[in-house]
Amino acid sequence: MKRTNIPQTDSIQELAHFWDTHDLTDFDDELEEVSEPVFERQTIVTVRLEPKDAEVVKALARSRGISHIALIQEWVLERIHTDVSLLLRPDSRDVIRDA
Predict the structure, then answer these.
(1) In angstroms, rounded to a whole number, what is the distance separating the alpha carbons of residues 16 and 18?
(2) Using CA atoms, how far apart are residues 38 and 47, in angstroms rounded to an integer?
(3) pLDDT digits (tens, 9 = 90+) for 36-55
(4) Gap between the Cα atoms of 97 and 95, Å rounded
C-alpha cells in the first residue's frame, strides 16, 4: 500500500482530519522538531448582542452552512480590511499608530 505524505498546509482542520485517519508512528522519518510555535494563539473577544440580534446572526450563519462564530469573525475581518485600506489611501490624513 502506498503511503501518503504529511500534508503541507496551515489548515488546522485539514491536519486534524489527516491525523484522525493516519498513525503518527508511520511518519517518524518525515517529522522534525521545531523550536517556535507553529500556530499562534488567537485572542478571544466577547461580543454582546441583544437576543433577537444573536438569533438573526445564527440564522444567517446556518443559511451559509457555517457557525455563527465563523460568520462574526468573517464580518470583523472584512471590516478591518476595509477600514485599514481606507486609512492607507494617499488622500487620507489619518495615520495608523502602533497599539
Answers:
(1) 5
(2) 28
(3) 877 778 889 999 999 999 99
(4) 6
